[in-house]
Give the backbone structure.
Amino acid sequence: MTWWCAASPGSRPRPRWARLTSLLAGLGLGPKAAKTRIVHLTVEGEGFNFLGFHHRLVRARGRSGARRVTFLARWPSRQAAQHARDRIRELTDRSRLLAPVDQVVREVNGFLRGLAGYFRYGNSARQFDKISTFAVARLALFLAKRHKRSRAWGWRLVAYQAPDRLGLISLTGTVAAPRPIWGWRARPNTAGERRR
């Protein structure tokens, strides 16, 4: 677990740490020293990973003449992106060449939907583009090996000749960037009740 505060590197966050420790002790909890650290968030700083996301303080580019906004951005961490690539690689492995193509595509789609459902609230568009491209490349390689053809043949088949990429979904457009005025919690959930 990582506890962070937006303090300058020269400040002393110990009073906050003592207060947090006493608050957690009152709940019967305590931070584990090996997994807890204080990160000083600064623009272009290191940031921190928490629950699969990488959090970092960034400054938006903005249009010419517009005021630049600083905000806490989040996207899938390197470990989460590597896990996604490993899982796609596992689903399109050479050992599965006898499996029907539509079954492999369904399984990859199921994984991509789960990934998008978890990481879509944030600033994940760039990472999603990379993972989508990787999924297309792996499916192309899978088909090339299955038909004993070149990788370029598989890429042409998936990316250009098949109108819907053989049913493989795209993560483009699935990101919901967080905005302070956007009431995404006010939408009804699946049972029709309002979220609080």
